[in-house]
Amino acid sequence: MAGTEAAVRAALATVNDPEYPLSIVDLGMIYGVEVVEGVAKIMLTFTSIGCPAADMLIDDIKAAVFEVDEVNEVEVDVVWSPPWNAERISPRGKQVLAMYGVAT
């Protein structure tokens, strides 16, 4: 299933956070991906506990991951530990944010 997990991660990289010009992967919001017998389990967090876009992001995640041929079901588990912080942003993400004048 390693190939399927890689495909799921690639699909997740197409989902952008509405607050930042970055994917949820570059923001470091994805804490884990596992695919077992066609079920993709995604562990993620949000950049803030009261994220107003949480439901929209979960819908976008499910839509993107369902595009992976080997995936029949998507489970999204929102976790808060460890809490998200800017250190989780990828090097690419930090470069993009710097272009927009956003300090990390």
Write the layout of secondary structure elements.
Elements: H1 2-12, E1 30-36, E2 39-44, H2 54-65, E3 73-78, H3 91-99
Parallel strand pairs: 2-3
Antiparallel strand pairs: 1-2
Please characterize this protein's 3D structure.
The chain has 104 residues and is of the alpha+beta class. It has a single domain, classed as Fe-S cluster assembly (FSCA) (GMP Synthetase, Chain A, domain 3, 2-Layer Sandwich), CATH 3.30.300.130. Helices cover 31% and strands 18% of the residues. The protein is built from 3 helices and 3 strands; from the N terminus they run H-E-E-H-E-H. It has helices spanning 2-12, 54-65, 91-99, and strands spanning 30-36, 39-44, 73-78. A 3-stranded mixed β-sheet has the order 1-2-3, with helices on one face. The chain is globular, with a radius of gyration of 14 Å.
Short description:
It contains three helices and three strands; from the N terminus they run H-E-E-H-E-H. By secondary structure, the protein is an alpha+beta fold.
CATH-derived topology:
GMP Synthetase, Chain A, domain 3
The overall pLDDT, averaged over residues, is: 93
Q: Give the helices and strands as they follow along the chain.
A: HEEHEH
Global shape: globular
Number of discrete helical segments: 3
Number of domains: 1
Q: How does CATH name the architecture?
A: 2-Layer Sandwich
| Computed CA radius of gyration, to the nearest angstrom | 14 Å
- Report strand order across the widest sheet: 1-2-3
- Uncertain stretches of 5 or more adjacent residues: none
Helix share of residues?
A: 25-40%
Note the main sheet.
Answer: 3 strands, mixed
